[in-house]
C-alpha cells in the first residue's frame, strides 16, 4: 500500500510543482542529462515513467515515439500530466497507471505489462520506505536485461566525525518535508547501500554523481 501521506503531500504541491522546479535552472540540466542518457540506450520501445509526477518527461518521451506507461499515485499530479497530453499530444500512445494501480507492491510478472526501460526521475524512489521491495517489483515489470534509470537524492553529508561514522553505517536515513499542513517522510541512501540492497535483482551499469545539482544518477540492468 502506498503511504497516504505521500499522496496527500504531492496532491498539495501539484499545482505549484512545475514552477518550483523551473525556479532552479539546475533542474533543467539534470532532466537534459537523463534524457540524453536514455535516448542513447539501444532497442528500447516501451518506457515506464515511474513516479512521473506532472509529466515533465513526457514531451521528449512522446516525441521520440516510445510506447509509454505513466505510473503516478497522486491524482492531482497525474491530472496535470493528462492535461499536458490532451493539450499537446492528443494522439500519443500512453497507458496511465494512476492512483491504486500505481501501487508497485501489487504488481505481478506478466509478459504483457513489461517495459524495456523504467525511468524514475527526480527522487521518486526517495519517497519509498521499503526500497528493497521496490527493486524487486520494478524488476518484475522489466524485460530481460531491461534498464532501470533512477535519479535520487543522497542523504546530506554530516559535519562531525561521530555523525559521519553513524551516517556511513546507517543504510537509510529519514527526514520529514512539509508543505502547508501536509508532511511526508523522505528516505535517503548511499550508493554502496543501494548496490547492496539491489544486488539480487539488478547490476549497477553506470553511476554519476550530479554533484552541483544535488542528484545522483544510477543506471541499473536487470539480472
Ligand atoms: C519529486 S516528484 C518527481 C516527478 C517526476 N518524475 C519529475 O521528474 O518531475 C516524485 C514523484 O514520485 C511519486 N511517488 C512517490 N511515491 C511513489 C510510489 N510508491 N510509487 C510511484 N510513484 C511514487 C510522487 O507522487 C511524485 O509525483
Structural class: alpha/beta
List the ions, cofactors and other small molecules found in this model. S-adenosylmethionine
- SSE string: HHEHEHEEHEHEEHEE
Question: For the largest beta sheet, what order do the strands appear in spatially?
Answer: 3-2-1-4-5-9-8
Q: If you compute it from the alpha carbons, what radius of gyration comes out, rounded to the nearest whole angstrom?
A: 17 Å
Proportion in β-strands: 25-35%
InterPro entries: SAM-dependent_MTases_sf (IPR029063)
Protein name: Methyltransferase domain-containing protein
Pfam families: Methyltransf_23 (PF13489)
Helix-strand blueprint:
Blueprint: H1 4-22, H2 26-39, E1 46-50, H3 58-63, E2 67-72, H4 75-88, E3 94-98, E4 115-120, H5 131-140, E5 142-152, H6 161-169, E6 173-179, E7 182-188, H7 191-198, E8 202-210, E9 215-222
Parallel strand pairs: 1-2, 1-4, 2-3, 4-5
Antiparallel strand pairs: 5-9, 6-7, 8-9
Helix pairs in contact: 1-4
Bound molecules: S-adenosylmethionine.
S-adenosylmethionine is lined by residues 2, 6, 10, 50-53, 56-57, 71-74, 77, 102, 104, 121-124, 127-128.
Description of the structure:
The chain contains seven helices and nine strands; from the N terminus they run H-H-E-H-E-H-E-E-H-E-H-E-E-H-E-E. The chain is an alpha/beta fold and 223 residues long. The chain has one domain (4-17, 54-222): 3-Layer(aba) Sandwich (Rossmann fold). The strands form two sheets. The protein has a seven-stranded mixed beta sheet with strand order 3-2-1-4-5-9-8, with helices on both faces. A hairpin with a 4-residue loop joins strand 8 and strand 9 (215-222). Helix 1 (4-22) crosses helix 4 (75-88). The longest helix has 19 residues, at 4-22. The protein is globular, with a radius of gyration of 17 Å. It starts with a helix and ends with a strand. The mean pLDDT is 93. S-adenosylmethionine binds at residues 2, 6, 10, 50-53, 56-57, 71-74, 77, 102, 104, 121-124, 127-128.
Amino acid at each position: 500500500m502506498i503511504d497516504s501521506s505521500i499522496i496527500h503531500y504531492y496532491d498539495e504541491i501539484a499545482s505549484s510543482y512545475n514552477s518550483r522546479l523551473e525556479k532552479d535552472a539546475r533542474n533543467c540540466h539534470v532532466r537534459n542529462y537523463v534524457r540524453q542518457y536514455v535516448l542513447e540506450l539501444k532497442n528500447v520501445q516501451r518506457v515506464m515513467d515511474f513516479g512521473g509526477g506532472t509529466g515533465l518527461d513526457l514531451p521528449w518521451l512522446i516525441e521520440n515515439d516510445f510506447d509509454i506507461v505513466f505510473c503516478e499515485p497522486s491524482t492531482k499530479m497525474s491530472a496535470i500530466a493528462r492535461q499536458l497530453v490532451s493539450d499537446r499530444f492528443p494522439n500519443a500512445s500512453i497507458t496511465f497507471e494512476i492512483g491504486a494501480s500505481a501501487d508497485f507492491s501489487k504488481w505481478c510478472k506478466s509478459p504483457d505489462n513489461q517495459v524495456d526501460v523504467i525511468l524514475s526521475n527526480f527522487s521518486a524512489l526517495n519517497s519509498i520506505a521499503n526500497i528493497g521491495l521496490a527493486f524487486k517489483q520494478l524488476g518484475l515489470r522489466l524485460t530481460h536485461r531491461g534498464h532501470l534509470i533512477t535519479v535520487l537524492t543522497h542523504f546530506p553529508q554530516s559535519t562531525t566525525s561521530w555523525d559521519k561514522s553513524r551516517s556511513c553505517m546507517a543504510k537509510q536515513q529519514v527526514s520529514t518535508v512539509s508543505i502547508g499542513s501536509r508532511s511526508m517522510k523522505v528516505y535517503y541512501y548511499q550508493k554502496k547501500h543501494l548496490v547492496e540492497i539491489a544486488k539480487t535483482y539488478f547490476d549497477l551499469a553506470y553511476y554519476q554523481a550530479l554533484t552541483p545539482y544535488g542528484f545522483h544518477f544510477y543506471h541499473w540492468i536487470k539480472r
